[in-house]
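Regression test case RT-17, inverse folding.

Input:
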């Protein structure tokens, strides 16, 4: 029997027409077999974390899926490629970045997939949009709710797209 799981994902873009790319990526996800888009946050304009580069647009979505974690990761990587992401170094500008943040209460530590996303708890550009749509979800490593984690980070680089 296939059991549905719930996953939180992060979307980001800082190259090209980011708003169009992010909307199109969500549309592709919504048409993907065995994936339902249950909720989506607003888009946020965020100061780039890491080396100097253009601001990002970031947002989050909640998916219901029967795809296991590694299959979902592959789905996301395929969509990234569809939107022309050229992989350079970590933290380089990108047309589309899709990350798995949470997957039920799974903790996974494979080289190709870490869940929860190890850097999510320190990233306002993830926690602020995620708190909009999943404030009560407990991040299983810290044991803290997303709303609580969001309160603990600096929101100054994150503003709702008007
Ligand atoms: N939770 C996860 N979500 C997405 N990719 C992950 C995750 N955990 C590990 N990875 C691996 O990370 C690889 C590189 O990801 P990517 O280039 O998007 O990193 P990044 O976005 O530059 O950095 P960051 O992970 O800090 O956001 C992916 O190919 C994937 O195998
Ligand atoms: N504001 C912001 N900064 C980043 C982002 C991102 O999505 N938004 N992604 C990064 C690498 O994944 C590095 N820095």
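Golden output:
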């Amino acid at each position: 029997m296939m059991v549905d799981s719930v996953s939180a994902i992060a979307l980001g873009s800082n190259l090209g027409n980011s708003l169009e790319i992010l909307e199109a990526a969500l549309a592709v996800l919504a048409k993907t077999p065995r994936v339902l888009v249950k909720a989506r946050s607003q888009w946020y304009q965020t100061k780039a974390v890491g080396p100097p580069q253009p601001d990002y647009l970031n947002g989050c979505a909640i998916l219901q899926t029967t795809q296991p974690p590694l299959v979902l990761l592959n789905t996301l990587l395929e969509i990234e490629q569809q939107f022309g992401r050229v992989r350079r170094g970590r933290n380089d500008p990108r047309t589309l970045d899709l990350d798995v943040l949470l997957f039920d209460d799974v903790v996974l530590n494979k080289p190709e997939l870490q869940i929860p996303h190890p850097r999510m708890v320190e990233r306002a550009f993830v926690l602020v949009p995620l708190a909009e749509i999943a404030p009560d979800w407990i991040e299983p490593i810290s044991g803290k709710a997303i709303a609580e984690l969001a309160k603990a980070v600096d929101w100054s680089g994150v503003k709702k797209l008007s």
